[in-house]
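Action item from last week, closing it out:
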Amino acid sequence: MARSIDYGNLMHRAMRGLIQSVLEDVAANGLPGAHHFFITFDTTAEGVEMADWLRARYPTEMTIVIQHWFDNLEVTEDGFSITLNFGNQPEPLIIPFDALRTFVDPSVEFGLRFESHAEDEEDDEDEDLSDDEGDDGDDEPPPQRAADVVSLDKFRKQ
């Protein structure tokens, strides 16, 4: 049996650890300066907890913004919980780090994207395949991101 280093999983753990550290700092000290985050996560992932009406509106994927108003940010080894305002209605969310798809801080043009092996295989088969399954046709456009996204594909052996 050949032994190899699983760089993909090591990068995923390191990136999740980076996000954990950032969120722990924000929970303790608030957001510094112009920093704010767009965090996209899989709403079907195990451990995600959210209001039924939000799950109905975002059945597969949701992007949250941590910027002006948030409350009760608590970070654990496995994920974080936060209360956000949706149309003047505060709603608690629990989001495991394993559910994350993207983490972007546009104030400093920083971003991370998490890809599963299944997504990698689909991308290899069809470069034009888009992952818009979460678009339920609502009127809200996705947030604009002016950030460099780090993809694990850059580090994979071809």
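Closing note: Confidence is low (pLDDT under 50) at residues 117-158.
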